[in-house]
Design goal:
Layout: E1 4-8, H1 12-23, E2 27-32, H2 35-41, E3 47-50, H3 56-61, E4 69-72, H4 78-90, E5 95-99, H5 103-111, E6 116-118, H6 120-132, E7 137-142, E8 147-153, E9 161-162, H7 163-166, H8 168-172, E10 175-181, E11 184-187, E12 194-195, E13 200-206, H9 207-217
Parallel strand pairs: 1-2, 1-4, 2-3, 4-5, 5-6
Antiparallel strand pairs: 7-8, 8-13, 9-12, 10-11, 10-13
Length: about 220
């Protein structure tokens, strides 16, 4: 059975989520208080609904308790964001991810049970910073304050060497969990897999270990 998603709030962030779900052919219900936004995304969402009042009854009538994953994105409307989060958790939705407008909003959402708080601007700033300070890093995803997943380009220094030869885990403390090469992705590559110059290496580990690998290993 396919997962069912609901996006509540169709601003820039919520609307972008709906567009991505549409591209991935995932079932998504889109909800907003504005009829203009509802009309904008009704061709992309499985169901697109205008909902002027946020309440337990209105959410239940839409069948939201059957959703697997909910995203709440109300921009700077902190009150609506908090109310929607509380109702969704009361309905028993296992995963409720909420966009926060600032750190205060983030702390409140965490206290009322949001499963994940998203801070798009801050998250994107980190990814951009990691990218521009390094010639080899393509992308960075934060897993925690200390850990991340990084995409980096293999240089001629590691060309035609196997993962066993490089022994990255022992030398640097991080792990290559995937290799992208000419449209192909090798997931969990074996120890005898050769790395080629220009490969995109997907590396996971502590940030300090990843940086050390980038500086000394690549």
């Amino acid at each position: 059975m396919n997962k069912q998603f609901v996006v509540i709030g169709l601003g820039n962030f919520g609307g972008s989520l709906v567009e991505v779900f549409y591209e991935m052919k995932a079932e998504v219900m889109a909800i907003d208080q504005s009829i203009e936004r509802v009309e904008k995304y009704q061709g992309l969402a499985t169901h697109c609904v205008q909902l002027k009042t946020l309440s337990m009854e209105s959410f239940a009538q839409l069948g939201l308790r059957n959703m697997d994953h909910a995203f709440v994105s109300f921009g700077d409307d902190v009150e609506s964001s908090i109310l929607a989060t509380l109702i969704l958790k009361e309905l028993g939705i296992s995963q409720v991810w909420v966009k926060a407008s600032d750190n205060y909003h983030k702390r409140v959402l965490e206290k009322i049970g949001a499963d994940r708080v998203i801070h798009p601007e801050k998250d994107m700033a980190k990814r951009i910073a990691h990218h521009v300070v390094s010639e080899k890093m393509i992308d960075y995803i934060e897993l925690s304050k200390e850990h991340g997943i990084v995409e980096m380009v293999a240089s001629k220094k590691v060309h035609q060497k196997t993962l066993l030869e490089l022994d990255i885990r022992a030398k640097f403390g991080c792990t290559i969990i995937g290799i992208q090469r000419k449209g192909e992705t090798i997931v969990s590559p074996s120890a005898d897999e050769y790395i080629q110059k220009g490969d995109t290496l997907i590396v996971i580990g502590k940030n300090e270990d990843i940086y050390k690998f980038e500086e000394e290993g690549l």
